[in-house]
Amino acid sequence: MRTQVGIIGAGPAGLLLSRLLQLRGIDTVVLENRSREYVEARIRAGILEEHTVRTLVDAGVGDRLQREGLPHDGIHLQHPGVRHHLDFPGLCGRKVWVYGQTEVTKDLIRAQLDGGPPLLFGVSDVSPEDVDGDAPRIRFTDADGTPQALECDVVAGTDGFHGVSRPVVAGAGGRTWERTYPYAWLGILADVAPSADELVYAWHPDGFALLSMRSPTVSRLYLQVDPAEEIGNWSDDRIWDGLATRFALDGWELRTGPVTEKSILPMRSFVSAPMRRGRLFLAGDAAHIVPPTGAKGLNLAVADVTLLAEALARLLHEGQPDLVDSYSDRALARVWRCTHFSWWMTSMLHRSGDDFDAELQLSQLRRVCSSEAAARELAENYTGLPLDR
Ligand code: RFL
Ligand code: PHB
Which residues contact 223 (CB under 8 A, 6 or more apart)? Predict the structure, then answer.
């Protein structure tokens, strides 16, 4: 088997990279170790930046997003007794969209299977080889159990945080930075209309809570819990009670409904540099993780592959290595901006249990809710800073 770009991982980063390269006339093969059903059901991100939406629409995979996505002009920031709306278009001229990562993934998979480049699910033993030379390959076992070798010009490691690509890059040196937070999120999906028009990020003495949504009839809600908590200790009633307490506001009520999914998610920041070894390039969660508070992970993955597709087209069509040579530095500049923003949102909104921290957090929240300059800084980062081009 031979292709120009062998792509490991069919998450949003790998699927979109394949699509962007196809539109530039470059052949790809995508290798995914899970099944299509598993990949399409994985519940994750929900907020898309304007740049992400434009990229998906321009790539011809945005029809359903444009029909079903919910444009949001801002968020609500809450602390006890106060729910303040931040108006993003007024502050920075941009907005965001609510559209689940599951739906982005389904749209990309459908486009790929509908006459697009090969996408192989259920492969195993995936291993990038000879990435330091000009003729790398990916060895893997296909879904029928047959060993295969995919000869490539370039390998893209878009296999997420637990993938096989980052260890290969790290094997040549480089470094990593990591922060684990003493918080986790308990997330639920519920069949009930969202209780607010836009997302509510709430600081509360009991801990952070987030009200989000997936559609006019499906709510997505999160509660800060201890990372050692077990989901079995959280009945639906206990979750709804916790949410009602943390979002409480005079004249407002939380709507409840059947819970269809619940899980506990750890939170960490992680950056690995460089995002390249020879002809192997990392993109998305394979190279970096942010805590979900700033809604940045999926958007960063899209920003990475936008840069990478352009760089690979220049290398493979024109033989010019300048953009692949600058890819890691350009991508990492945005990664660190988003890492800072996600850390800042996380630090401002989660209870540490320390009362000094709490007063600093409340002071920061009052500042964002009263100063246009402070609000604009949040709005510019949340809606996504322009790509460095
Ligand atoms: P993914 O989505 O993890 O995809 C990697 C793919 O690679 C496959 N794979 C392999 N395939 C072949 N061989 C191997 N050895 C392989 N190892 C792994 C995996 O099965 C998978 O299919 O990474 P990608 O594409 O980089 O995308 C990143 C995003 O998924 C992630 O950043 C976001 O979900 C983060 N995130 C959010 N991001 C946002 O932009 N906005 C949000 O509102 C938002 N909310 C969230 C989030 C992440 C969350 N969790 C679960 C951590 C909310 C949550 C709760
Ligand atoms: C979500 O809807 O899953 C979501 C929204 C905003 C965030 C994180 C997650 O900051």
Answer: 185, 186, 207, 208, 209, 239, 242, 243, 246
pLDDT in tens, 194-220: 999 999 999 999 999 999 999 999 999
Q: Which of 159, 221, 280, 346 to mutate to test the pocket of ligand 1 (most atoms within 8 A of CB)?
A: 159
Record the tokens describing residue 14, joined without a space: 């790998």
Confirm whether 382 is a catalytic residue: yes
Closest-lying ligand 1 atom to the alpha carbon of residue 52: 40
Q: Which atom of ligand 2 is nearest to the CA of 294?
A: 10
How high is the pLDDT of residue 297?
97
Residue 18 Cβ < 6 Å to ligand 1: no
Measured distance CA(96)–CA(45) in Å, rounded? 13
Second CATH level (architecture) for the domain 5-70+99-177+268-351: 3-Layer(bba) Sandwich (3.50)
Convert the pLDDT of each residue in 299-314 to its tens digit: 999 999 999 999 999 9
The protein residue with its alpha carbon nearest to ligand 1, atom 2, reads: 11
Ligand nearest to the CA of 142: 1
Fold (CATH) for 182-263: D-Amino Acid Oxidase; Chain A, domain 2 (3.30.9)
Record the pTM: 0.97
| pLDDT confidence tier of residue 388, bands split at 50, 70 and 90 | low
Domain boundaries, the chain: 5-70+99-177+268-351, 182-263
Ligand 1 centroid–CA 48 distance in Å is 14
39-68 residue pLDDT tens: 999 888 899 999 999 999 999 999 999 999
Smallest Cα–Cα separation from 83: which of 194, 224, 202? 202
Q: How far is CA 198 from CA 215, 243, 257, 293, 332, in A?
A: 11, 16, 18, 15, 31
